[in-house]
Amino acid sequence: MSDTTFAKDEFEAEAEISDYIALLKPRVMILVVFTALVGIIAAPVDVHPFTILVSIIFIALGGGASGALNMWYDSDIDGLMRRTRNRPIPAGKIKSAEAKAFGFGLAGISVLMLGLAANWFAAVFLFFTIFFYVAIYTIWLKRWTPQNIVIGGAAGAFPPMIGWAVATSGISIESILMFSLIFLWTPPHFWALALFMRDDYENARVPMLTVTHGRRSTRNHIFLYTILLALFALFTSFTALGGWVFLGTSIVLNSIFVVMAFNIWMRGDHDAEGDNFKVERSFFRYSLIYLFLQFGSVLVDHGLGTNFSWGFL
């Protein structure tokens, strides 16, 4: 795809630091940092606090690089969507070529420095994650298939595995379980967004499930994936990753999540449009709280020593 060009007068104002920060998708970066930190701390290896700090910084930069490159490539469709039209590139604050150079530069720095600060296995894993998000999801899947967020969601599920790799230089069943939790969480999280932002995706010709199969099918998928997530979270409670706090948290969080998904499944489009998709918006917001608390319970179990000494895996 060629760089999106804008009229010269759209760039009369110099870009501010806040514009470059926006390119990093800071809200997404918070999730990346937190889950990666859980991966490091939950690993059965003591890591020096300084190594943890610098590793998290470079993992965050890698996540930011992915965000910047995503905004560079998607600048054409971002300008067509209400949710994204005020991003730095479509808003005319940063040139597309500058965002591209910024993203690739951060990607190179983050991978190199993580290798030097931690280990090269973790660095290669970070490189693969950036590549997957930009090339596999952004460039290929997003504009090609309604399963874009299902397959592409793997990119957002890799950070805890990268964190685990920082501590252990490898992969284990625990890191795969953390990956799987985020992987199953991602579709209902984004499909809820797609329910109340359907017109945006249709205008931008992005084949989200709501556009290609309609809202009824999307509601069915949300309910199904939420049930699968709940079952997997409860199963995970009895594995090497789980513990008493994780088990209790899973029961509460997933019970609420399934009930909310059921409420979405029961609704018709007329009802949703009548209250501006209030239920779907609540589900979307709760999904963020869900993931932070579910992963936070891993930290609590680790800190209190309440992990199960037995488990299915």
What does this entry look like structurally?
It is built from 16 helices and no strands. The protein has helices at 17-23, 26-42, 49-73, 75-78, 96-117, 120-141, 148-152, 154-157, 159-168, 173-196, 198-203, 209-212, 214-237, 244-266, 269-274, 278-304. The relative contact order is 0.11. The protein folds into two domains: 15-170, UbiA prenyltransferase (Tetracycline Repressor, domain 2), CATH 1.10.357.140; 172-313. Mean pLDDT is 93; it is low at 1-12. It is 73% helix and 0% strand. The chain is flat and about 50 Å long. The protein is an all-alpha fold and 313 residues long.
Give the topology.
Blueprint: H1 17-23, H2 26-42, H3 49-73, H4 75-78, H5 96-117, H6 120-141, H7 148-152, H8 154-157, H9 159-168, H10 173-196, H11 198-203, H12 209-212, H13 214-237, H14 244-266, H15 269-274, H16 278-304
Helical region count? 16
How many structural domains are formed by the residues?
2
Q: What structural class do the secondary elements suggest?
A: mainly alpha
Work out the number of β strands: 0
Ranges with pLDDT <50 over ≥5 residues?
Answer: 1-12
Find the CATH superfamily of the largest domain.
Answer: UbiA prenyltransferase
Shape: flat
Provide the CATH top-level class of the largest domain: Mainly Alpha
CATH topology of the largest domain: Tetracycline Repressor, domain 2
Helix content, binned percent: over 70%
What is the level-2 CATH architecture name of the largest domain?
Orthogonal Bundle
* Percentage of β-strand residues: under 5%
SSE ordering: HHHHHHHHHHHHHHHH
- Supply Rg: 20 Å
Mean pLDDT: 93
The N- and C-terminal alpha carbons lie at a distance of 45 Å
